[in-house]
Amino acid sequence: MLRGINKQTIFEDDEDRGRFLEIVNKYRRTGAFQLYGYCLMDNHVHLLVKEIKDTISEAVKRISSSYVYWYNNKYDRCGHLFQDRFKSENVETAGYFLRVLRYIHQNPLHAGLTKSVFASKWTSIHEYIKNDSGVIDILFPLQLFSTDRKESVIKYVSFMEKQNDDQFLDDHPRIRKTDMEVKEYLSQWGITISMLQKLDRQDRNNIVKKLKQIDGVTVRQALKNNRNLQKCDPPCKVRRRDRVPVPPSLITA
């Protein structure tokens, strides 16, 4: 995902969006990468690409540099347009690939800009239906639905329309729990810091796993007490009769 610096607008009109796609297609046609999906929003861009000749960093650098050069000339400006670092994540499975593609196509819908996933002009969703592979590579994604062209399009349309709660690279507000709030969770489970020192390693690991599942609790917080226990000097020694049984609700298979 490429986002405008300070989340500013990077596309003022359709000419800008068209130019951006021309630049993307220019480098795609050189064999630098394959493009499976895109969505152009006012202040950010989603691209679903596969590295071939270029790494994702090289491809994004070529695309962004070319577009910024053109954009600055058009609007008589200078300086940066995009944030320094783009966001990316690996897509390892076919199922995950299709969910990411759907998320990209549904971006305008989730933003409240359209009432239908097919109503947005500036996503690649229509190219799959029209069999127009001018900018993207449609063969691989469609074959994940069916090797029969007609059947694959029907399944593709149904999948793209399906409601879901998938979230990937966007800057959604993140809730952060304080260390005191984490201790409060432990207290609700009947666990105190001193009791943690008397638990077996496996029981402590189960509690850490439970903490990491709470929205807003960071890995650092979940592991903090565990690391402190491991650094005891001299090493913590607990007599068997002093060990505290872990509450049944925290035991995981």
> Overall pLDDT, averaged?
81
What is the C-alpha radius of gyration, as a whole number of Å? 25 Å
Give the SSE order as H and E letters: EHEEHHHHHHHHHH
Strands side by side in the biggest sheet: 1-3-2
**H/I helix tally:** 11
Note the main sheet: 3 strands, antiparallel
Q: Could you name the ranges where pLDDT drops below 50 across 5 or more consecutive residues?
A: 228-244, 246-253
Shape: globular
First CA to last CA: what distance?
37 Å
| Percent in strands | 5-15%
Structural class computed from helices and strand pairing: mainly alpha
Q: Helicity level, as a percent range?
A: 40-55%
Account of the 3D structure:
This protein is mostly helical. Helix content is 44%, strand content 7%. The protein is built from 11 helices and 3 strands, in the order βαββαααααααααα. The chain has a 3-stranded antiparallel sheet with strand order 1-3-2. A hairpin with a 3-residue loop joins strand 2 (33-40) and strand 3. The longest helix is centred in the first third of the chain and has 19 residues, at 56-74. Mean pLDDT is 81; it is low at 228-244 and 246-253.
Provide a compact summary of the structure:
This protein is mainly alpha-helical. It is 44% helix and 7% strand.
Short descriptors:
single chain; disordered C terminus; 44% helix; 3-stranded antiparallel β-sheet; 11 helices
